[in-house]
Amino acid sequence: MKTTTEQRQHWMSVLAKAPPETLLGLSEDAIKDIHFDIIRAPEVGLTQVRARMGNRGERFNLGDMTLTRCVVRSSLNTVGHSYIAGRDKTHALRAAQLDALLQDPQMGEVLMERVVQPIESMLADARASKQRETDATRVDFFTLVRGED
Amino acid sequence: MTDSQLQKGFEQPVRDAQQAFRQILKVMSEPGVMRTLDHAGALAELSPAALTTLLSLMDQTTSLWLSPSLNTDPIRTNLSFHAGAPCVNDPTDADFVMARAGELCSLEGLKIGEPEYPDRSCTLVIQLDQLEAGDDQPDLLTLKLSGPGIPGQRMLSLSHPGEALLAYLLERPDPFPQGLDLILVNGTRVAAIPRTTHVEVI
Q1: What's the whole-number mean pLDDT along residues B5-18?
Q2: In this structure, what CATH number is given to the domain that contains residue B83?
Q3: Chain B within 8 Å of A37 (Cβ-Cβ)?
Q4: How far is A142 from chain B (nearest CA, A)?
Q5: Which H or E run contains A44?
Q6: What is the domain extent for residue B19?
């Protein structure tokens, strides 16, 4: 099975958002037998985030964010890239290694099951509980017509 | 871009680029002096010294022209990945020219800078088959260098750099301070002949 761009975008996003300790813990076993050549060692830099007002208006510069990126080649001859928010180099390295392995059909299936899916459901749970917490204190504002001119 | 052709650039980008830059500065300011540049490995037909030079000096704002035999997929992919430098199709648009000896048929039209801004000129990086300091190599072409940065004179022996380039060095047609600077690489060695150097063939 050939992986599509969407699939790869999806797992790269999950790996980037994963809490570093969880990611390192879950993936330790899977990568220990594989050799990786480092093509671009983890390096910290800045990227400019751009946005559109209401996702429609003109594009504007929202601000800069710190970013760590890394590129490795695995002994299965796949190349993995990673871009991580923040300055955690071990996280960036591991995410790149996993991206490389996920592109291999056999390894990919196992890793999806053992690493990506657990993290994904964890992130979804965290998001849902945050959502509930926020909803509990929701205030709906409305304004009465005051009758002045 | 084909991912599988990517290879490692510098081990430690900041440190290696600074060290390489220092060596290039040394050979530029003392023409004829030879230094070792091996911070990056060889890349396809590019020698370690050539790749180290390009990775140290180039970024997104410097355009590069590659001679036909070097204009291959792995070289373009890696240079754009590690240095981000745009490749141009016309050498007259380039800030850097990377060529093997003899592949640059004409130096006509290359950027020589402007009288007010002589730094806006093209730097040639030429990969030679042989390059030695001194003049005790009978089968090589020996150049006698003199001028700023050289106490008296210095000898540099090299395999033929190409008719056009040799003619340029001997005639120096561009009015100073305009002109082309030349970096010579071979294997892991580098030497330079900047525009101020007077060149004679022995």
Answers
A1: 87
A2: 3.40.50.11310
A3: yes
A4: 52
A5: strand A36-52
A6: 3-201
